[in-house]
Amino acid sequence: MSARVEQAPEVASLWSVRELVDLLASVWADLDEEEALAVTVARCVEILGAEVAAVVADGRVAAVAGAAAGADDGDLLAVADGRKGIVELPWAGVSQAVSVAVEDERPGRLLIVRKQPLGPQELDLLRGLARVLSISLRMHRTLAQVRAQAEENERLAERLRHRQALLERLTRIERAITHGADRQTVLDMIAQGASELVGDEAAGLGLLHPDDSERARVVAAVGIAPELLDPLLQGPAGSSLGGRAMEQGRLVAVDEDEREGAAELTEQGLRAAMAAPVHEKGRVIGSLVVATARRGRRYSEAERETLLAFAEHASLALSDARTVEDAVFRSVHDPLTELPNRLLFQDRLDHALALAERSGRPVAVLFLDLDGFKRVNDSLGHAAGDELLVAVAGRLRRSVRPADTVARLGGDEFAILIEELPPDVQAGSAAERILGELAEPFVIRSRSVVLGASVGVAVGTSRRDDLVHAADLAMYRAKEEGKGRVQVFQPEMRAAVTQRLDLEVDLRRALDHERLEVYFQPVVRIADGSIVGFEALARWCHPRRGWVSPAEFVPLAEETGLILPLGEWVLREACRFAASWPRSRPELWLSVNLSAAQLEHPDLVEMVRTTLDASALEPERLWLEITETVLMRDAEEAVAQLARLKSLGIGLSIDDFGTGHWSLRHLERLPLDGLKIAKVFVDGLLDPERDPVVVRAVLDLGASFSLQVIAEGVERLDQARRLQELGCALGQGYLFARPASGRRALALLASGS
Ligand code: C2E
Ligand code: CA
Ligand code: CA
Question: Would the pLDDT of 51 be above 80?
């Protein structure tokens, strides 16, 4: 048998370990573990001239090679376990089997089956091979790990780069939003950002129509014509890419190799595309799409994530943009009517005037104040009042050209800007037309409401023209002249108004410093001129202008609310004057004028009561004079207020009776004590040919209601005589006495004439 041993010298001597390592290294460098193991065992068969070589690990044969590849796995496992040293091979017969340990994290064994037993050197070689195998395995695993790590690192780095770019993009968009960029700019930035972030040349944003959840519209597109993008962005019902992203609420990508299934892509000459849903307030409102015509495009995980994240943030940006836009809109529009407010109106006006300076075509500003709006508001309630304002706004809007601006300046005040006034149209007639439109009744809560308006008009061609102020002044003039009319601004109105403003300031000051005075004019018995009472009349001696007529400052005080302190002061002063009357004249009475604003004031009755209490004057000696116009404003309320006043025990008379066209039928409902015949009717008595109808009627009325009647403004003796003939006992006028200071009035009283 030794001869056979000699015939077959041990092969180990032919191989150094180093050579073995080299041999296997190349194998293990390029192949994966399974393949490398297969090659390794094949080499073992070659090197050792073995029938079979195998690696067993984890209780299974991991690789096997050799002519006896058909060897029974069970035999090989038994060899690896050390249970068998001999294996019977189908054709080689009884053969020797040896196994050596392969050190690895999963311990395994390298085994050899050879007909000829292995010599000691060959066994060493086998162990060497096992060692090389275990090193190779470990190296291979480490390498694979390093490689995986490197890939992972690369992926992370890419992700980081994307995130960075994403952040930059988003900050840019957010900055644009906070700087008040309009919505379209933001939308364009989103499309642009998506294209750059993902690196595809085309991108677009599709948003659903607010009231049609089926139809998406391309609102921004870069690198591609919007209409080409349209098929990719169809709404959820469509099978388009964007439609699917919206419907499924997730990212949908079509790489180049999958594009056959996406007809909308190929038809547009595109090769790959991705779409991500865009939300607003948790609802899908559209999709963001990127697409490319480049070849070989596949979307990496990082790119997919980027688009998804960007779409998510774009949603936020969109809501922000809308919020900012809303805020901007709200800051320049009236919330009720949604018409531009004063700010926006002024802005448009400035713009229009700048254009007018170049074109020479004038610009018109109409100032419009509703007449009688307060009445509607008070009687129908504020909600109805609001509805009416909205209806007025709508009608005004429709009554002008789309290019013109209708604004609400506040309350029931509107302004209209007519740009480039057509040469054939006069601003005044345009205003008349608008007034005509407003005259048609409005139907509010199934009630028909008729409104009028006063309109002021100002026309100009230069930014130096203060058209708003001018139109405002003209509007006030229109109101003064009886409402429901159009007034075109005239330069002298400005002077009148500044004077008036000055006067208001001065009046306030005069009142504060008690620079006003109260004069008293006697009321006399016409028959003998004896004094029966006094009317208190306010006087103001202006430091520069001298005496200012009450006919001027009383209306001013009424408009500015100064009439309340003024009236109270006059009443107090008058009571003080009455306190100095001689005790021998207990029948004397005192008349004090009361204005409409005072009568409407809820504290009036209390004020009169305390003033009376503070003076020694008996209530029945005080008379208050009111004009008919007071009663016309709100008859019901006036009747109630007069009744309350009357309950103080004072007298009430109607001043300037006959001038107010006031219906006589209310007279019997009023707690009255006297009537004063207005000066105009007394003046009428100068013509002896004419029948003094009114004077006669007033006297009859006084007689039938048992009222005291006083004729005012008696200047001439013949008037006095005529009045006596007609049966008028009491008179007041320059004929008898002019109004005078308290001191002089007292002197007059003492002299008896
Ligand atoms: P009124 O109440 O009708 O006062 C009578 C006005 O006629 C007074 O004018 C008086 O000075 C004037 N007058 C009296 N006799 C004659 C005459 O023979 N000929 C002419 N031409 N005028 C005569 P006055 O003081 O200028 O007051 C004008 C109006 O101002 C008053 O008309 C009254 O409505 C209002 N007023 C005056 N003082 C007060 C006041 O203290 N409170 C209120 N609320 N109104 C006042
Ligand atoms: Ca009076
Ligand atoms: Ca009067």
Answer: yes
Nearest to 590 by CA among 744, 745, 753: 745
What is the secondary structure of 139-197 as a DSSP string? HHHHHHHHHHHHHHHHHHHHHHHHHHHHHHHHHHHHHHHHTT--HHHHHHHHHHHHHHH
More confident residue, 427 or 368: 368
Question: The tokens of 387 are what?
Answer: 């509805």
Q: Of 346, 486, 391, nearest to 430 (Cα)?
A: 486
Higher pLDDT, residue 101 or 742: 742
Q: 516-525: b or e for each residue (b if 16 or more CB lie within 10 Å)?
A: bebbbbbbbe
- pLDDT at residue number 711: 97
Q: Phi first, then psi: give them for residue 212, nearest 5 degrees.
A: -150, 100
Closest CA to 412 of 433, 442, 432: 442
Q: Extract the tokens encoding 664.
A: 């006589």
- Tell how far CA 172 is from the center of its chain: 24
Helix, strand, coil percentages in the chain from 3-state DSSP, rounded to 5: 50, 25, 25
What are the residues whose beta carbons fall under 8 Å from the beta carbon of 738, sequence distance 6 or more?
Answer: 521
Q: Give whole-number Cα distances, 494 to 21, 238, 501, in Å.
A: 110, 66, 11
Q: What is the mean pLDDT of the chain?
A: 85
Residue 28: predicted pLDDT: 72
**How far does the centroid of ligand 3 lie from the alpha carbon of residue 479, in Å?**
24
* Test site for ligand 1: of 593, 623, 736, most ligand atoms within 8 A of the Cβ: 593
Measured by CA distance, the residue closest to atom 46 of ligand 1 is 593
Query: How far is the first Cα of the chain from the last one, in angstroms, to the nearest whole number?
Result: 179
To the nearest 10°, report the CA torsion of 261, 266, 268, 272. 80
| Spatial separation of the C-alpha atoms in residues 184 and 409, rounded to whole Å | 30
Closest ligand by atom to 678 CA: 3
> What's the rounded Cα separation, in Å, for the pair 448 and 442?
6
Spell out which residues line ligand 1, taking CB within 6 angstroms. 521, 537-538, 549-551, 554, 567, 570, 593-595, 625, 655-656, 713-715, 732-734, 739
Residue 464 CA from chain centroid, whole number: 32
Residue 7 pLDDT grade (very low, low, confident, very high; cuts 50, 70, 90) = very low
Residues 6+ apart with CB under 8 A from 261: 254
Q: What is the pLDDT of residues 660-692, one digit of tens each?
A: 655 566 677 788 999 999 999 999 888 877 888
Give the number of the atom of ligand 1 that is nearest the alpha carbon of residue 627: 34
3-state secondary structure of 669: helix
Return d(Cα 321, Cα 338) in angstroms, integer.
20
Q: How far is the CA of 595 from the centre of ligand 1 (A)?
A: 12
Kindly indicate the confidence band of residue 65, based on its pLDDT and cuts at 50, 70 and 90: confident
Question: For position 481, what pLDDT does the model report?
Answer: 82
In this prediction, residue 25 carries a pLDDT of 67
Question: For residue 59, is pLDDT > 50?
Answer: yes
Which ligand is closest in space to the CA of residue 551?
Answer: 1
Asked whether 538 and 579 are in contact (CB, 8 A), the reply is no
What is the distance in A from the centroid of ligand 2 to the CA of 659?
Answer: 13
